[in-house]
Design goal:
There is one protein chain. The protein is an alpha+beta fold and 69 residues long. The chain has a single domain, classed as Alpha-Beta Plaits, CATH 3.30.70.20. The strands form 2 sheets. It has a two-stranded antiparallel ribbon with strand order 1-4. The N and C termini lie close together (7 Å).
Length: 69
């Protein structure tokens, strides 16, 4: 499974950062098109549990079947 992050939807709410059991989500140093620091995932630590997807109010995360990224 692959995770696509729609960075320009992220409003830096931090719900996903707080809910990640592996603590592998953080904020990027660059600002997105709407003026926030979007999330980034350390994919080596990510277990693809879906917690980020579940708590995100802005539809930032999209899980794509197949592939491993």
């Amino acid at each position: 499974m692959r995770i696509e992050i729609k960075k320009d939807r992220c409003k830096e709410c931090g719900f996903c950062v707080a809910s990640c059991p592996k603590k592998c989500i953080s904020f990027a140093p660059k600002i997105n098109k709407i003026g926030y620091h979007p999330v980034v995932i350390d994919m080596e630590q990510c277990i693809k549990c879906g917690s980020c997807y579940t708590v995100c109010p802005d539809g930032v995360y999209h899980f794509i079947p197949g592939g491993d990224q």
